[in-house]
Amino acid sequence: MLDVGLLLIRVVIGVLFIGHGAQKLFGLFGGYGPKGTGGWMESVGIRPGVAMAVFAGVLELAGGALFLLGFLTPVAAVLLALTMIGAIVKVHGPNGLWATANGYEYPLVLLVVVIAVALTGAGAYSLDDALSLFQAA
User: Where are the transmembrane segments (predicted)?
Assistant: First the structure.
């Protein structure tokens, strides 16, 4: 059952990160693409906005895909953790913890989940397992 639980976590979190990356890179799912996201990033002090939007989008899209597949899971976790740390520090941190005040509650949950899965291992239903990569001790 542990492996099914890890698969569920990887699928949901991986798909959500892929979606966020697609919003930033391609304007899909209600996103604003690199130019719109970059403009918003500039407005909150993240410069250069378009380049940082593309960078964050690539981290989320690639990291989400790797996490979903359970392939190179520690690498995926680092990519995704970087985006969540950036979101906490640059966007949500000043608003406090709670999501109701646009705080860092949700990015913190995502950060902990990706780190925990990387430390635990992606589970039996993963490419890491199929290829004998990053086996949990």
Answer: 7-26, 38-59, 66-88, 108-127
